Amino acid sequence: MSISRRHGLLFGLVGLLYLAVVVAILYDSPLVDLDWHLQQLRPYKQWPGALPYLDIWVVAGQRGPTAIAACLWLGWRCYRSHSARPLLVMGTALLLLNLTVGGVKILTGRLGPHYAHYVGSPELFSGGSIFPSGHTANAVVTWGVLAYLAVRWRRTGAALAALTAASIGLTTVYLGTHWISDVFAGWAAGALVLLALPPAEPALAALDRWVLAAWHRDGRFARPAAPATRPYPAAAPRPAWPPRPQPVQARSTTPSRTARLSRSERYSMVSGPSGATARTVRQPRSAASSRARSTGSPG
Fold first, then answer.
1. d(C-alpha 185, C-alpha 21), whole Å
2. Which residues make Cβ contacts (< 8 Å) with residue 119, sequence separation at least 6?
3. Average of pLDDT values for 122-134?
4. Which regions form coiled coils (predicted)?
5. I want to staple 186 with a disulfide (CB 3.0 to 4.6 A). Which of 42, 72, 133, 138 is the partner?
6. How far apart are the first and last CA of the chain?
C-alpha cells in the first residue's frame, strides 16, 4: 500500500512531538515544572468524590483486561468473516506497542510522582518504568484499533476512542500515578502505532492468506462447505400410447328448431324415400256426401 504524503507528514509530526517531550524532560525544561506543579496539587485530595469512580475507570486503559475483551470480540469477527485480519491487526498493534513503549520505559527509567525523591527533578534513570504512560498508550492503541477495524460508524468510533484515551490519561494524573509529561508521551506513542498500521496492510494481508491456507489444509476453521446436491436423473421418455378412440356422434338429420327451413326441406320431412307421403292425404269430399254424413244416411 502506497503511503500518502499527508499520512507521512502526520506520522513525522507526531514523531517530532514525541521526541520533543523526551528532550524536554531530559533537559529539565518548564515541562518538568508543570509536572511538579500538578503533582503538588494532589487532585485526588482536592476532589475526593470522584476517586472511587475514576479508580474503576482507569481499568479501561490497562492492557490485560482491555486486550482480552478486544481479542474476544475480534475473534468472533474473524469467525464470522472467515478472515484472521482483525486479530492480526490487533496483535501487530500490541506487539509494536510493547516494543516501542516498553523500550523507552527501560531506557529512561523514570520514577512516578509517588516515588519521587527531589522536588523539581525529572527523576530519570532511577530504575523506574513510568515514562511514557502505558495506560494512556494502551488506551490509544486498543480503542483506536477497534475504530480502525470498524465497518460502519468509523468516525464515531474514532471520536469515542479519542475521548476514552484522553480521559484515561487525565485520570492517571488525577490519581497521581503519572506525570502530565508521561501522558503526553503516551498519547504520541499510541498514535505512532496506529499510524504504522496502514503501511503494514500488505504484509498483514499476505499473513492472513497464509494463516487461512494453513487452517484449511489442516481441516480446522475451514469455511463450511455447501451441501452436495445430487443431480436429478433424466426423465424417462413417456411411452407413446395410441390415441383413445373418440365416440362418433350421429348427425341428426332433423334440423334445429331455430333453423329456418325452405319449402323443399319441409316437403322432404313429410315424404318418404320414394317420394310417397308419410301420411294419407284425404280426398276432398263432395257436398252430397257431407250432407249424408251429417244426416246419418249412407252416401
1. 6
2. 36
3. 92
4. none
5. 133
6. 140
**Pick from 166, 169, 164: nearest CA to 132:** 169
Q: Is the pLDDT of residue 278 over 80?
A: no
Q: How far is CA 183 from CA 128, 169, 283, in A?
A: 16, 5, 144
Single-letter residue type at 224? P
Place of cell 534513570: 125
| CA-based radius of gyration for the chain | 52
Query: Helix, strand, or coil here: 167?
Result: helix
Structural domain boundaries in the chain: 5-212
Encode pLDDT of 174-208 as tens digits. 999 999 999 999 999 999 999 999 999 999 999 98
Question: Sign of dihedral through CA atoms 36, 41, 47, 52?
Answer: positive
* This model's pTM is above 0.85: no
Give the DSSP letter string of 53-74.
Answer: HHHHHGGGG-HHHHHHHHHHHH
- Do the beta carbons of residue 171 and residue 57 sit within 8 Å? yes
Q: Reduced to 3 states, what is the DSSP secondary structure of residue 271? A: strand
As given in the structure block, the three cell numbers for residue 116 are 519521587
Are the beta carbons of 128 and 109 closer than 8 angstroms?
yes
User: Residue 16 phi/psi, 5° resolution?
Assistant: -65, -40
pLDDT tens across 218-240, in order? 655 445 545 555 555 555 566 66
Q: Are 28 and 122 in contact (CB under 8 A)?
A: yes
Query: Cell digits for 223?
Result: 469455511
How many Cβ atoms sit within 10 Å of the Cβ of residue 74? 21
What cell does 186 get? 503516551
